[in-house]
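Collaborator request, handled under Task 6.
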Amino acid sequence: MSVGAVSFVEAARREKLEALRGRGVEPYAYRYDRSHTAREAIEAFDPDERVSVRVAGRVVSWRDHGKSQFAHVADTSGRVQVYFRRDDLGAERYDLVKLLDLGDFVGVAGYMFRTRTGETTVHAEQVELLTKALRPLPTGKKDAGGEVHGDLADAELRYRQRYADLAVHADVREVFVLRARVIAALRRFLDARGYLEVETPVLQPLYGGALARPFTTYYNALDANFYLRIATELYLKRCIVGGLERVYEIGKDFRNEGIDRVHNPEFTMLEFYQAYADYEDMMELTEAMVASVVSEIAGDAVIERFGRRFDFTPPFRRATFEALIAEHAGLELRAAPEEGLRSMLRQRGVDDVDTMSRAKLIDEIFKEFVEPELQQPTFVVDYPIELSPLAKQKRGDPALAERFELFLHGQEVANAFSELNDPEEQRARFEAQARARDAGDDEAHALDHDYVRALEYGMPPTGGCGLGVDRLIMLLSDRTSIRDVILFPMLRPES
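Structure tokens returned to the collaborator:
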């Protein structure tokens, strides 16, 4: 059925809507004075006292007994049974009850009692229609294994009509409550350590801070192309130049890339930067932050997710990039010829290897052979310098960068550097990226003259880190798709 088509069921609901209006009942109320949530009403029951309540919520079940009706009304706290009886409400008000449908929002005033089956219930003395639902909610029940049956078995329908998914599935609502708790915990952790939360531009005249394709838009007033940011990094480091010594931002980034289980073009990142720190300091801070958030949300540093035990007790494992390549791909990376790398990737079925630069080949080798093996919290340290255009060279080995990434459950969750603060070196790195772009790498970094100018004013030694909030929440909520932890994920436009 198309979006605009009206089904038989919807037509019947619209007839009820007109019948209600014909009786002078406004089917879309302005407000309702609620005294108790569903849970509070149940908890307020006292067998020795008549407790009056005013509850409101969506009708989610209905049983017709002729001169009486039982329904369940649900709100964010849960649901409570309501008992409607003709003799208590009167004929006119009871006739209104008969015009209610599943999905309608009602307000009910009455007193608490316990039925013969032992269920704590609101005995309705007054009822008000607050919102008439013109569409029935999709059906969607989960079996013991968590598999969805009914209309909402279609994952795309759940993502496209997230409002229906939330209304039907309490566990989906719980994911987004958990998400809010995680973000609040991250803020508390950094605020307690003297970090200042700042906001940087989403629309930027030049994108940067990562290797990715941007979304482009045209700004009419300035007659110029602008870009949705791919990272907050370069603006946050401008704050460090300006004397804000500890800054962070939690916000949306946008990358014009494919969509899969762990990628959505619009996603949430936490980036934080600290003057007079290096990547070792950021590793310690990231480790403490992740362990703290996991313990706060899950109640323990050791958790069970995806049928596996994860231990977030510090210290996390540390291993170098080159050692992991040697362990899992059998390569001595520095001696490996480009054609050998291409051949290995062809055998794994990776596309477009013939056009990849050496840096891109190395990155793909790591993704193919190493990442799936990194299940427990692991810091991968000391990356090849060509993969890290914004990081300082490693002290004692200029072929490497002082960089780490944190991996959990085979996914990169955080990325950090000893930040490059030499403007001449930064300019040279940008120019090398420009050459890579000219050679066909459309994810190479753009040359940002203003950022180089900022560095010329002087940026103190700085450590910085970016943490993927969505991926951390995936782990904590036991969800295998990033779309399950983003309220409204990216989908093809509906026809």
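The cover message to the collaborator said: "The radius of gyration is 28 Å. Residues 205 and 222 are 10 Å apart (CA to CA). Please let us know whether this matches your experimental observations."
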